[in-house]
């Protein structure tokens, strides 16, 4: 033991000596530990309260926004890391993530984030990153919709690049099979159980008909309607999403019983074949993940803390910290 410790110690000693001896720039590593809870405690004490107040004002007229901020966080972090690349507007010659068909027009709430940023700039200029605003907004949305609270490690910085083409390369479509979902999340360092746990976010919000209407009208060569969709639920969905109505493309609640409550009822719906996307229902029908769905359906008190843990982990994906990136002045454009 002693010799191992000595070895480890001498390794760090050599590392420290060479690091000070050489005039090299040391870039901070982006590991989860590089973020910290209360990062703005001294530089901008009201930061988190300003974000929360701005969001709650918006929630009072549109409670559905909580789902948007939760989804925004996922879509920011899975594409180029949690660097607020989702918030950048397209420019001449560059279509940004925001304008990928995956996000436009279904993802909303950008104006609320812009408003929070404007208030933060007034209180503490050039201090709070847009990437952290998204992470705080996701946390506040989880609390608003689920009464589940957690602390958000912060200190992220904003990126300067956003490309629409990277969205479909990184985010899973609602037609994915379980092995495809597992592979997609594994690329970002998430386990199968974490993937199933995070999918519980689909217990709030809504979806455009186009994201699942293939299950109603054109499933495959032998089945027009997905046999893994409860026929009564399918009939209900058909009234909401009439065939050939792709121009108006209305929205349907992901969880038709408690659309604004974040809880484990999402998993209970899967047991009765009322998952809206085939990627949701597959979590129950696949042998790989069925047990996890059953557990989450049964034990909401186990799912909640697992969800929080996975959300915090999601927020550490490929973050920019220290001197990397920048603190944007406005979230829609680079400085
Ligand atoms: C597991 C793979 C996932 C797939 C295939 C998927 C796919 C989708 C699709 C297609 C929509 C509907 C978009 C529309 O047509 O309006 C949606 C909505 C949503 N997703 Fe996911 N998603 C996944 C995981 C996640 C995760 C991990 C989160 C957050 C932690 C999340 C949060 C949401 C929320 C809250 C909505 C509702 C948005 C609203 O009401 O505006 N999703 N998702
Ligand atoms: C259509 O889907 C059903 C149910 O998932 C499946 O059993 C069947 O093999 C599929 N048919 C084709 C032609 O893919
Ligand atoms: C980004 O685009 C939105 C919508 O077009 C607009 O309201 C906002 O002011 C733009 N932001 C910047 C920084 O250009």
From TrEMBL:
Pfam families: peroxidase. One of its GO terms (biological process) is response to oxidative stress. Disulfide bonds join 44-124, 77-82, 130-331, 209-241. The keyword Cytoplasm does not apply. Residues 1-21 form the signal peptide. It catalyses: 2 a phenolic donor + H2O2 = 2 a phenolic radical donor + 2 H2O. Belongs to the peroxidase family. Classical plant (class III) peroxidase subfamily. PANTHER family: PEROXIDASE, PTHR31517. Removal of H(2)O(2), oxidation of toxic reductants, biosynthesis and degradation of lignin, suberization, auxin catabolism, response to environmental stresses such as wounding, pathogen attack and oxidative stress. These functions might be dependent on each isozyme/isoform in each plant tissue. This is Peroxidase.
């Amino acid at each position: 033991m002693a010799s191992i410790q000595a070895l480890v110690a001498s390794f760090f000693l050599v590392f420290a000596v060479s690091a000070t001896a050489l005039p090299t720039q040391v870039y901070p590593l982006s590991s989860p530990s590089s973020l910290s809870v209360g990062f703005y405690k001294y530089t901008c004490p009201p930061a988190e309260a300003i974000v929360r107040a701005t969001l709650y004002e918006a929630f009072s007229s549109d409670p559905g926004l909580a789902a948007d901020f939760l989804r925004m966080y996922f879509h920011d972090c899975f594409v180029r890391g949690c660097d607020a690349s989702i918030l950048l507007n397209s420019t001449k010659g560059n279509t940004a993530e925001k304008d990928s068909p995956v996000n436009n027009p279904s993802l909303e709430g950008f104006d609320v984030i812009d408003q929070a940023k404007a208030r933060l700039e007034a209180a503490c200029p050039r201090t709070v990153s847009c990437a952290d605003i998204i992470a705080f907004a996701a946390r506040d949305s989880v609390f608003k919709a689920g009464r589940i609270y957690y602390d958000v490690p912060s200190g992220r910085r904003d990126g300067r690049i956003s490309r629409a083409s990277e969205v479909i390369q990184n985010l899973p479509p609602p037609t994915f099979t379980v092995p495809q979902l597992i592979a997609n999340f594994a690329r970002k360092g998430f386990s199968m159980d974490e993937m199933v746990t995070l999918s519980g976010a689909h217990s709030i919000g809504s979806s455009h008909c186009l994201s699942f209407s293939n299950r109603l009208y054109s499933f495959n060569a032998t089945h027009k309607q997905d046999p893994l969709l409860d026929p009564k639920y399918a009939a209900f969905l058909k009234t909401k999403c009439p065939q050939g109505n792709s121009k108006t493309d209305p929205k349907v609640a992901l969880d038709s019983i408690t659309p604004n409550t974040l809880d484990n009822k999402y998993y209970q719906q899967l047991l009765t074949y009322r998952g809206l996307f085939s990627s949701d229902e597959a979590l129950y029908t696949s042998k790989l993940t069925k047990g996890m769905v059953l557990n989450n359906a049964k034990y909401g008190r186990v799912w909640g803390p697992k969800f929080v843990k996975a959300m915090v982990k999601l927020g550490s994906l490929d973050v920019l910290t220290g001197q990397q990136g920048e603190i944007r002045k406005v979230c829609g454009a680079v400085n």
